[in-house]
């Protein structure tokens, strides 16, 4: 009996140590529509970011293996991801770790400040450190060879500003494109720094970013690139819809293909199989298979 109590107390202490860095949590869309209930957390070691993650990391890693990562920058280059949390939480519920710029907000008070693109680099640095931290929840549970960098609107420009970071495997530009402008430390010249696949997910003619994204797509000729256009999506896409709507589903097709090697997801892009995406168009180039 005494031995059983000691073991029980030890397991309890291990659990407390595992979650001791979490300051607060938030549940979005009841944890998402994926196989792993997701939570948004504020980490003591990363106060100016939100981590969207499977609540039960052990379960997710047992099924998925080490988890891929998405670092994310927000529309308006803002220091809050609350307007994107439905998409980001949904991605996490499918077995991803998402680190988004901006402290965790429990409600949208519309007060925000501008951020710097360097914060995406900081997010990647944190992920690397956490994967090596034996006392942390993420120890050896992250796949550092599978990092995506994504951003919406001005956040996409922040992605392009750090495009040369060798750790990035794929880029996700939501309602964003450089065109001929300069923003957030990025410009047309930043496209040359891209060294992995790129997807532009835009919202049709009413999306102010569509023309710039199209120009980027036409100009990128050295890496695989996709232009996914929700013709009636507007500049906000489906970020406010339950489970992130079609934008989240499109993003997951891309991430599962590019970071998890799920070849069955490629038909959406390579064959323009849009049977699950009403009123979308698709263009791709520079893919070898």
Q: Could you please describe the fold and organization of this structure?
A:
There is one protein chain. By secondary structure, this protein is an alpha/beta fold. It has 8 helices and 10 strands. Helix content is 29%, strand content 24%. It has a 10-stranded mixed β-sheet, with helices on both faces. Helix 3 runs parallel beside helix 7. The N and C termini lie far apart (61 Å). This is Alpha/beta hydrolase. Keywords: Hydrolase, Signal.
Mean pLDDT: 93
CATH architecture: 3-Layer(aba) Sandwich
CATH class: Alpha Beta
Low-confidence stretches: 1-18
Secondary-structure class: alpha/beta
Number of strands: 10
How far is the first residue's CA from the last residue's CA?
61 Å
User: What oligomeric assembly is this protein in?
Assistant: single chain
Strand line-up across the major sheet:
1-2-3-5-4-6-7-8-9-10
| Overall tally of domains | 1
The backbone outline, from C-alpha atoms, is: globular
Estimate what percentage of residues fall within beta strands. Answer: 15-25%
Helicity range of the residues? 25-40%
Signal peptide: 1-20
GO molecular function, one term: hydrolase activity
Keywords: Hydrolase, Signal
Protein name: Alpha/beta hydrolase
Topology:
Blueprint: H1 2-18, E1 22-26, E2 38-43, E3 46-54, H2 57-64, E4 67-73, H3 85-92, E5 97-101, H4 118-131, E6 142-152, H5 154-161, E7 168-174, E8 197-202, H6 210-219, E9 225-230, H7 245-258, H8 267-270, E10 280-285
Parallel strand pairs: 4-5, 4-6, 6-7, 7-8, 8-9
Antiparallel strand pairs: 1-2, 2-3, 3-5, 9-10
Helix pairs in contact: 3-7
């Amino acid at each position: 009996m005494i031995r059983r109590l000691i073991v029980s107390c030890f397991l309890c202490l291990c659990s407390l140590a595992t979650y001791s860095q979490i300051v607060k949590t938030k549940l979005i869309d009841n944890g998402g529509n994926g196989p792993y209930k997701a939570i948004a957390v504020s980490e003591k070691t990363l106060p100016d970011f939100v981590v969207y993650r499977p609540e039960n990391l052990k379960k997710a890693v047992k099924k998925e293996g080490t988890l891929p990562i998405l670092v994310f920058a927000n529309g308006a280059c803002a220091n809050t991801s609350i307007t994107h949390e439905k998409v980001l939480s949904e991605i996490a519920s499918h077995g991803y770790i998402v680190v988004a710029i901006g402290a965790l907000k429990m409600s949208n008070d519309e007060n925000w400040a501008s951020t710097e693109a360097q914060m995406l680099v900081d997010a990647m640095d944190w992920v690397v450190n956490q994967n090596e931290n034996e006392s942390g929840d993420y120890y050896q549970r992250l796949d550092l060879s599978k990092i995506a960098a994504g951003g919406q609107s001005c956040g996409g420009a922040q992605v392009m500003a750090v495009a040369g970071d060798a750790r990035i495997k794929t880029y996700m530009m939501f309602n964003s494109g450089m065109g001929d402008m300069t923003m957030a430390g990025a410009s047309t010249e930043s496209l040359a720094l891209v060294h992995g696949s790129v997807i532009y997910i835009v919202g049709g003619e009413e999306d102010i970013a569509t023309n710039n994204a199209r120009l980027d797509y036409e100009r990128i000729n050295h890496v695989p690139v996709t232009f996914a256009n929700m013709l009636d999506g507007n500049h906000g896409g489906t970020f406010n819809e339950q489970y992130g709507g079609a934008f989240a589903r499109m993003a997951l097709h891309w991430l599962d293909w590019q970071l998890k090697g799920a070849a069955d997801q490629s038909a959406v892009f390579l064959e323009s199989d849009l049977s699950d995406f009403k009123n979308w168009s698709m263009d791709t180039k520079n893919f070898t298979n």
